[in-house]
Amino acid sequence: MSGFRQQPEREPEGDDFDIASEPADQMPKALVASGAKPAEQLPLWSPDMADPAQAQGAAEPTASNAGWKPAPEKDPPWSLEDLFIFIGFAFLSFLFASFVGVVLVSVLRQSFGVPMGEQALASTPWVVAMQSVWELLWLGFIYLTIRKKYHRDFWQALKWVWPRQPAATFLIAGVAVAFAAQAIMNLFPSQKHLPIEKLFSSVEAAYLLAFFGVFVAPFIEELVFRGFFYPVFERMWGLSVAVVLTALLFAGIHVPQLSGGWQEITSIFVVGAVFSYCRGKTGSLVPPFLMHFGYNASLFVSLYISTDGFHNLKG
């Protein structure tokens, strides 16, 4: 009609309200009275779609999800395959070290005139040096396997954890095992001359062997057999089988030194089984190391006393 003028459209201002979002009690009375309904707000996702927050929660379980547990970390991380690789490495490194030793003796004798015969390869200093290098290669292999291949802490992976019991407990236990083994050996004395006896050729050689046998061999051997081999065997076949297998391997590396002495080899097997059982029951590598240290130390102390300070050796 001509009496009414059409109001021009204008842009909404900050004070204007949004019907779709304004509560009913705050809407203008005219709209409420007329029964007008605010526009229905469309959902951000369709009803058949899951809530993104809920979907994310379902895809990524949390600690609050009932029945969900994180996958346990493999302990130890290395496997039986790594043990076979180690055995192959130890064999090849022994052949390589022996070859290097022969070449070195030949070079020293021919090029520098050093009076060294083939018997030098069987001398105590040479044997101890070669054994030390060989066992250091073992240590290097195990270290690289744990640190570089599996990215684990070296000492933690090997269970080098000090037990709750005093260290003296395991040292004394090692001494007791040594006396028990010696007592049994006295019941079944061996009349054979063992290869290791030839290494005790002098007082100096005996001291060198004592140092190696007390301060080097227990640590390296326990690290290899009870630290590297034992946990894999225990995880696969249980404590009993692990004890027997590691004891067999432990006795095996001593066969060249004790060749022909079945009593001594049997004794080493039993001692190795005791060390392995201690490792299994304590869950730590430190107790069998302390026992091994006490065992070897008591043997050399006994030898020192019985031979008048290594002066009356049979070697």
Summary tags:
disordered N terminus; mainly alpha; 315 residues; globular
Principal-axis shape equals globular
How many whole angstroms does the radius of gyration measure?
38 Å
Structural class: mainly alpha
Strand content is: under 5%
Mean pLDDT across all amino acids = 83
Helix content: 55-70%
Q: From N to C, what is the helix and strand string?
A: HHHHHHHHHHH
Largest sheet descriptor: none
Tally of individual helices: 11
Number of strands: 0
- Number of individual domains: 1
Low-pLDDT sequence parts: 1-5, 55-59
Head-to-tail CA distance between termini: 135 Å
- Assembly type of the chains comes to single chain
Describe it for me?
The chain has 315 residues and is mainly alpha-helical. The protein has one domain. 60% of the residues lie in helices and 0% in strands. It is built from eleven helices and no strands. The protein has helices at 29-34, 52-59, 80-110, 124-149, 154-157, 167-187, 203-215, 217-237, 239-254, 262-282, 286-306. It is globular and about 65 Å long. The relative contact order is 0.10.
